[in-house]
Amino acid sequence: xxLTTLAVLxxxxxxxxxxxVDGNTIYGNDDRLDLSDVQSQAVLKxxxxxxxxxxxxxxxxxxxxxxxxxxxxxxRENLCPEEPFRDQLEGAFCSGSLVAPDIIMTAGHCVxxxxxxxxTKFVFGFSIADKGGKTPTSVPAGExxxxxxxxxxxxxxxxxxxxxxxxxHKVKGHQPLKLxxxxxxxxxxxxxxxxxxxxxxxxxxxxxxxxxxxxxxxxANLDTYGGNSGSAVFNAGTGLVEGILVRGDTDxxxxxxxxxxxxxxxxxGRGEDVTCVANVLARLPHAExxxxxxxxxxxxxxxxxxxxxxxxxxxxxxxx
Length: 320
What we know:
The chain is α+β, with helices and mostly antiparallel strands. It contains 8 helices and 23 strands.
């Protein structure tokens, strides 16, 4: 991809207001869903191409299984009894997505150096797929990949934050996600995110939109937490990846002797920062093949997620 083309793409996702603090929060209703509460095959297929980043010592392979070192989410965060997902286990430190047969896209602050990359395991399938299921403590050994090379990264406090990792071998059983290669995104565009908030099993969260365009990133009201860093953010009208979740508001606040999620109205708070996918396009090999993969899903994904969130809320609090 020519430099001039990349510049045009970045300008399409740009203005020059300043970012604020790190962290994340809930905007309006808590829209997070376990995969067990998602019926849309289109959304589940997208989730199948997202990954959890674990510290290498937290993944032990034995007898064809990769055992995961996990902790109690409720205990670690001192969560109040009513807090969603408090009975689940956490372990991932960041999220990512498959964008080529052997390339993972994540946030730059998740993989800060070549040595850091070598100390990371990239795990598919850390999710709760069955209704009433519990956090998996292992995945098949073939779902775990290592880092072969850090292809590139950027980490600007008030701008883009991304990393591309070449895996130690090509991924089997998962398809690369489709990216928005046009560089065009507008205020009000509907969004959803798939990743690992607080290091939990995969969550899908919709009900969001683009609030503002910045220099190399945009701001949205996504329901995300630490651990969502590196998550793919999708356009709910097309199913294409628009960017990478990288920064946001505070995660938790004190309520008596325990903690609850920090909440804002849909139009409140500072918003969550999403690095535009245009920042990474020139670093992807065979960029023309990436462009050829782009095809709108022609589905009203936001309506699907809204319907499923309402159904999950009616069924015992949406997996909480």
